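Thread title: Can someone regenerate the structure for this chain?

I was given the following input by a collaborator and told the matching structure tokens would be attached. They weren't. Posting the sequence so someone can regenerate them.
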Amino acid sequence: MCEKESTQYSHFARFYDLLQSDVNYDEIAGFYSCLIKRYGKTGGTLLDLGCGTGSLSERMCEKGYDVIGVDLSSEMLSVAYNKMCEKELEIQYVCQDMTSLELYGTVDVMVSALDCLNHLDGEKAVKKTFAKAFEYLEQGGLLIFDVNTAYKHKELLGDNVYVFEQEGLFCCWQNFYNEEDDSVDICLDFFEEQEDGSHLRFSEEFTEKAYPLDSISEWLTEAGFELIGMYDGFSDTPADELCERAVFCARKK
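Best answer:
Regenerated them for you:
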């Protein structure tokens, strides 16, 4: 097991986009946008919870939404801000914890992608996030997010090791599965090549927690939401406990 270090993805932010190079953000943005239109919202203000380096925020902005990106990591937001400037987009990035969100007003839609809620510190934190989302959504506003399932944690992530290699960068990704609560401890070791051919090592460690889909649905209801859709990944196929990623769509009643 890796020695645990306190982190807010400070090193991870530098390499995040490289490791996510196979993620189809256009597909995610397209599916989220379809759900938003399907359930009666067009345009307006959209809040991206756990926006990371801003890849989804950028695509939702390009689709015509007024986007606010929220993330706890200032390092992630710094990368997002630089990318936004390069693309000449207008996105407001805010450094906040989604469990204690504070906005100047309400928004029409909130989205979150790539298992951000799995990174929260347990059931209480997820419930606090739902409560804050409800507080800052307009009446009839939508909350759309995805989560990794317990099935994915056990059967795919498990106790596996992954190796990534890009030009000038080598990454070893180690998972440690906890059967008691279906969580996965993730340890990342980055080796970055220097000009003299040597390598600097950076390490990050964090935990993903998975929850039964019925529990998430119940917590949404407790927060005041109406669950209007639950999908297997970014498709219209209904989700179940054997899917790898579940997308939830809920409306503020």
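The helical segments are 12-19, 25-38, 55-62, 74-87, 123-136, 150-157, 213-223.
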